[in-house]
User: Fold this.
Amino acid sequence: MLRGMSDEATREPRSFYRIGRLPPYVFAEVNSIKAEARAAGKDIIDFGMGNPDAPTPEHIVEKLREAALNPATHGYGVSQGIKGLRKAVADYYERRFEVSLNPDTEVVVSQGSKEGLAHLSTAITKPGDVILVPSPSYPIHPYGFIIAEASVQFLPKDFSHPDPLAYYITQLKEALENSVPKPSVVVLNYPCNPTAECATLEFYEEVVAICKAYDVVIISDLAYCEIYFDGNPPPSILQVKGAKDVAVEFTTLSKTYNMAGWRVGFCCGNPDLVYALKRMKSYLDYGGFLPIQIAATAALNGPQDCVLETRNRYKERRDVLVKGLHEAGWMVDNPAASMFIWAKIPEKFQELGSVEFSKKLLREADVAVSPGAGFGIHGDGYVRIGLIENLHRSRQAIRNIKHFLKG
Ligand SMILES: Cc1ncc(COP(=O)(O)O)c(C=O)c1O
Assistant:
């Protein structure tokens, strides 16, 4: 080794308090096997990510191009987002949910909903606060708060329960009644990543009533509200009368318009929470690149047939995968919304757990999925299959899996 060079591969990184609160990434093991297999020339069919594979609709890209050609858009923006975009979000809520929002006090634009979720967590938390998060869940839901030094209390999901929403309500009430200190925030996510479960308006009504009674704040993540399949548009918690007294909701353009890389999300609802996020962001950023915000405004205000196309594309994939997996003997649940199938590991592999099962599937069927344990220990009997491969590759995956399950 040359003098002065350190051996990066073996060096233990210096430890930092906050980084120590972030455990190693559960997906890393599966990802490294995936990388090895690809390096060896294998064609891995990858259902492991939640990254939309289709391009952003042309009229939105065109608006970006046009706005970027105007030098006046190249300077700093404003961290809360441009007024036109906040107004477009308020109009969307009115159209889609019949919810009225004040674009100045009840809407803030974030750089993707993940950034907003993370910074709102920091903005409203003091060390030791108790936060109620479902398990399994999308990682930023607990880790935004863990980074903020909260104490996260997981509410485990019971997938064998005949009424999972009623089960959640029981768990929520118990936690609110018995936790010391009293919880300060409840996190919800329906349609859910990773489980694809959906909520009803009645469920939200109950949660809002409970949280009001216990003076607890609600953060609802509605990232998949436009990706639904059987004619049942998912509701918004803000449709509940008085929800704005306690709740904010995050939405995003990432999935609805295939704009994951553009980083445009929104936090809407309770003005105190919206203000907290705005205030936090005013210290941290200047908002997204203005041409992106202008194109995002065009996405929300423009023609919506692209949303229907996106929905249909995921629905077709869902239909092919669910039918094919059933024919292969893997009786997965049929998701009503989201980009995911939450699949119980087949009986004969149950004792492997989700990480080992995912590795086996990758090595023996050339199919990558996300191990459920990556979303919390209560997900360990499951894997998440993303609807992100085209029909041809989804069919190929089914043939591979059929062969794998027979072997
Ligand atoms: C439930 C959920 N919330 C938020 C996000 C992040 O979305 P964004 O691209 O807006 O940061 C995702 C992304 O996969 C998600 O699944």
Remarks:
- Residues 50, 112-114, 138, 189, 193, 221, 223, 252, 254, 260, 265 surround pyridoxal-5'-phosphate (CB under 6 Å).
- Confidence is low (pLDDT under 50) at residues 1-5.
